[in-house]
Amino acid sequence: MATVLIVVFFISLFLGLPVFLTMCIAVIFAFVESGGIALTMLPQQIFAGINSFPVMAIPLFIMASDLMTEGKLTDMLITFCNDYLGRITGGLGHVNVALSMIFGGISGSAVADAAGPSKIVMFMMRGAGYDRYYSGAITAASSVIGIIIPPSIPMVIYSLSDGKTSTMGLFAAGYIPGILVGLSLMVLNGLMSKRHGYRYSTEKISWKQKLSSLWHAMPGLIMPIIIIVCTVGGVTTPTEAGAIAVAYALVVGFVITRKLTFRRLAKVMIQSAIVSSSVMMIVAMGYLFSWVLTYARIPQQAAAFVGTLTDNPTIMLFLISILVIVTGMFVDTIPAIMILAPIVSSIGASYGINPFQTGVVVVVGIGIGMLTPPVAPLLFITSTIGRLRLEKLIVASLPFMLVELTVLILLILIPPLTTWLPAVLGYGGF
After folding, report:
1. What local confidence, expressed as pLDDT, does residue 13 receive?
2. What pLDDT, on a 0 to 100 scale, did the predictor assign at position 65?
3. Is the separation of the CB atoms in 380 and 135 below 8 Å?
4. For 133-248, where are the E strands, in sequence order?
5. Residues 358, 317: contact at Cβ < 8 Å?
6. Three-state secondary structure call for residue 168
7. Beta carbons within 10 angstroms of residue 113's beta carbon
8. Cα–chain-centroid distance for residue 91?
9. Structural contact between residues 107 and 136, judged by C-beta atoms closer than 8 angstroms
């Protein structure tokens, strides 16, 4: 059964079929081959995959980020970041990264970041004299932060697929790594901007203007704070935090910025529904696929097999990270996590690795995989929006990928980077 499942999955994948259809076909073949599972289990498990309270957080966070953009809060955040960071060497590059860190605390999606606010800064960088491929590379690389800093859709999916790791604990584990990735990209951007002589803003910004931009950006800055307090603080569940974020974005858009109208709201709802439905389809099929993996005892077999390779937990985490990155090179984020989570969590548990460290390593590794050819969705989106040649963009993104790989290595070698904050907040850790 396990052999049929895996072989049919990869054959369907290389034939170019949609990922959700690939998983469904593989499961059907596995069901038929086993002979011991009724086909009526198929629709039951598909429905079970989305009949979950935590999964409701996904469309809510998607809609909250869309409302933020439509309510013009993104523009205010860009102005705020530019006023405070624009005069530093590599100023607009820093603005790009900082915006990804802020927006990552709202959307939970790397793709939404690359196609949304970071796109605006990319064109600002090109207008200021930055190399167009450098601008595209830092835009794609900084978008990875969107799935590391909570709320993170991949973290919700990982927690759902694993079934044992707390979503809120995983959120808490993501803050330090996300900030670390952002600061590392800023350091590299400063060094490369100085080397290439990229201009920074010479316009003197008065403190009055800085305070004014802070005041106008405050509604946008409050959004991630609300989500942090609600989720990591244990006040609400991630789903309830998503609902609060949507309600807050509606109030800001209609009352404070007054940029949101009922016509625009209808547009946002349709857009969010389309994105959410595509995600939910993958989640449903991914849950079914994960269920079959568990039924076939593939996670346990994988854990037993890798146990023969090494008895060192650190080396095992390195092997897991390689597996995750390679998978992320070929498979989209959500199905990749749903396929890998049951396997790597079992392996991590058998080695006594903290589940939050395993989860964060998987999410960061998947993020790096999103920058790595042949699929590289973040590079593909950036090249399409910026009308850039993909092969040149890949070369330009290599330094940023190396920095993110370095951060991933640190997360493996220094467990407290992922376990300290969850332990402090009472979610466990060591």
Report:
1. 77
2. 82
3. no
4. none
5. yes
6. helix
7. 30
8. 25
9. no
- Stated pTM of the model: 0.84
Q: Could you tell me which of 337, 360, 417 has the C-alpha nearest to residue 162? A: 337
3-state helix, strand, coil in the chain (%, to 5): 80, 0, 20
Q: How many helices (H) and strands (E) does the chain have?
A: 21, 0
CB-based burial of residue 28 (10 Å sphere; 0-12 exposed, 13-18 middle, 19+ buried)? middle
| Geometric angle at alpha carbon 318, from 308 and 180, rounded to 5° | 160
Cβ(290)–Cβ(161) under 8 Å?
yes
> CB–CB of 125/382 below 8 Å?
no
DSSP state of 1: -
pLDDT at 326: 86
Yes or no: say if 350 and 307 are a contact pair by the CB < 8 Å rule.
yes
DSSP per-residue codes, 312-344: -HHHHHHHHHHHHHHHHHHS-HHHHHHHHHHHH
Nearest to 366 by CA among 381, 349, 378: 378
Low-confidence ranges of the chain (pLDDT < 70): 107-108, 112-116, 199-203, 428-430
**Residue type (1 letter), 276:** S
What are phi and psi for residue 33, nearest 5 degrees?
A: -65, -35
Rounded to whole angstroms, the Cα distance separating 268 from 151 reads 20
**Nearest to residue 169, comparing CAs of 375, 355, 370?**
355
Residues of 257-295 as b/e, b for ≥16 C-beta within 10 angstroms?
beebeeeebeebeeebeebbeebbbbbbbbbbbbbbbbb
What pLDDT score does 417 carry?
95
Q: Which amino acid is at 182?
A: G
- Token pair recorded at residue 60: 């809510």
Q: Which amino acid is at 345?
A: S
Residue 311 burial by Cβ neighbours in a 10 Å radius (0-12, 13-18, 19+): exposed
Secondary element (H or E) of residue 420:
helix 416-424
User: With the C-alpha atoms ordered 226, 228, 230, 236, is the resulting torsion angle positive or negative?
Assistant: positive
**pLDDT of res. 200:** 65
Rg (CA), the chain: 21
Contacts of 320 (CB under 8 A, 6+ apart): 344, 347, 348, 358, 361, 362, 365
Instruction: Please say whether the beta carbons of 227 and 105 come within 8 A.
Output: yes
Q: What six digits make up the tokens of 122?
A: 């990319």
Task: Give the distance from CA 164 to its chain's centroid.
Answer: 20
Q: Tokens in use for 39?
A: 């086909």
- What are the tokens at 311? 């008895």
